[in-house]
Specification:
32% helix, alpha/beta, Rossmann fold, globular, 8 helices, 6-stranded parallel beta sheet
Length: 241
């Protein structure tokens, strides 16, 4: 299979590229390499497009709302228009369920609206993705580096990036369309991962509770290999309850 993978140098993309390249021919596009989806060459003959390129993060989206719109919506529109007859799997977000809370979530809602006009696509609503080398500046990164200053009252469905890649591979082999949650189906209080830290309740711009509906993934044979508490304990993170 010939695959075009956008965002192949990103947090999820680099793992997915390595996994898929073992079995398929994978062409990568990433802004790190100077490929801006707003104007780069999209003349590829491929069987499927996996669209991961995006601006992520809730807090930064308030400061750079226009950049989030251009990257997550306008660039995605161009990609969809360039591949009208090609199957597209694209990265959405669990934040979509309360898209009014922040510009990042709103941009992902609009992405799903764009995708709804494409006959053969599937939106993957990723939940809280982690690894031992997480996105810089995010919760898991600060927790592992010991720089986390506080926790929140949120609960989150944490899914390891390797499990995300397994899920994407299963979805790639399916003919599903529409949208699907990509998570473990298990939600964990954030406070339980660092209960020794102070609690900050001033987080009104983010969803309070996330938990993936995994029925569709499970029907394809998906079963996560990782548990976030065991994962952190094995890395030597203390105080977890």
């Amino acid at each position: 299979m010939k695959i075009l993978l956008t965002g192949h140098k990103g947090f999820i993309g680099k793992y997915l590229h390595a996994k898929l390249a073992k079995k398929h021919t994978v062409f990568g596009l990433d802004s790190i390499e100077g490929n801006n989806l707003l104007d780069c060459d999209l003349d590829y003959d491929v069987d499927v497009v996996i669209h991961l390129a995006a601006k992520t993060g809730v807090r930064d989206s308030f400061k750079k709302a226009n950049a989030y719109w251009n990257t997550n919506v306008e660039a995605s529109k161009r990609l969809f228009h360039a591949f009208p007859d090609t199957r597209i799997l694209y990265a959405s977000s669990s934040s979509i369920y309360q898209a009014e809370l922040n510009p990042y979530a709103a941009s992902k809602l609009m992405l799903e609206q764009v995708a709804s006009h494409h006959d053969n696509c599937l939106g993957m609503r990723f939940h809280t993705v982690y690894s031992d080398k997480p996105r810089s500046g995010m919760f898991m990164d600060k927790l592992l580096r010991g720089t986390l200053e506080y926790v929140t009252s949120h609960t989150r469905d944490f899914i390891h990036v390797d499990d995300v890649c397994d899920a994407v591979e299963l979805l790639l082999s399916s003919d599903l369309t529409g949208v699907v949650d990509v998570g473990t189906g298990v939600t964990v209080p954030v406070q339980n991962l660092a209960p020794h830290l102070p609690l900050n309740l001033n987080t009104q711009n983010e969803r309070q509770h996330t938990q993936a509906n995994t029925e569709i993934l499970e029907s394809l044979g998906f079963k996560p290999k990782y548990n976030v508490k065991k994962f952190l304990t094995n890395l030597g993170v203390e105080h977890i309850i």
